[in-house]
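=== Per-residue structure ===
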Amino acid sequence: MAVLNRLFIARASSLTFHSIRTLYFSSSSLNSEIGVGHKPHLPPLENKEKNVQWVFLGCPGVGKGTYAGRLSNLLGVPHIATGDLVRDELSCGGPLSSQLEEIVSQGQLVSDEIIIKLLSKRLEAGEARGESGFILDGFPRTIRQAEILEGVTDIDLVINLKLREEALLAKCLGRRICSECGGNYNVACIDIKGEKGKPGIYMAPLPPPTHCESKLITRSDDTEDVVKERLRVYDEMSRPVEEFYRSRGKLLEFDLPGGIPESWPKLLRALNLDDTEDKKSAAA
């Protein structure tokens, strides 16, 4: 991983790829039941023992950070979000902070070069602390990034979270932030009836505690036009990346059936995982 920066400078055509694990497909009847189509066959994992190297894909607002964070805690591997890497660099005044400040202030996308440098720095620091494995959130977003990552480390699995557009739009427009504590909440109660073969979706609101209710604010970019454009751009950019991993037999496409209570158990089933602590709390 320490060669991530050097490898980025090389032309994509010169990358040497690791051998790719042979993956098989499980029965379509089970996959349909848990919200996935064909998926890579995954052996059962022993929680807290596997150094998985997974990637989460999904459009803005779908919940990548939520589910990646839960799996990070369950498996004992770090959850690395590129958005957090940018914010950390800005807050600590690192060597790239002045360049990032200019990019962010102008509303531009952070370049591949900078993202690669930040990710390389984070992975090297993790290795020095004895970390094994990771769950990436928000990377890769382009074919170029995917090629670089594939040339450096063998990604085990890419989990592509999907949610119907009307539910996703309502979810994004319902987001609220506490101006005092920074907590994230959602005031939307999403109840979409099933029709034309599509199942219904129910997502309960995530209300703030009483002391935060009067301090809620909306992100300036969470307007209907901006969210729709964000989703359009993401769809256009993500399709080649999805196909990149699909062609390698590494893509698991998971349709979220609702909020966390409905989706989390089914995602665990799709990944052949077991959340013992979750079962204990439910039985208490």
Remarks:
- The first strand starts at residue 53 and ends at 57.
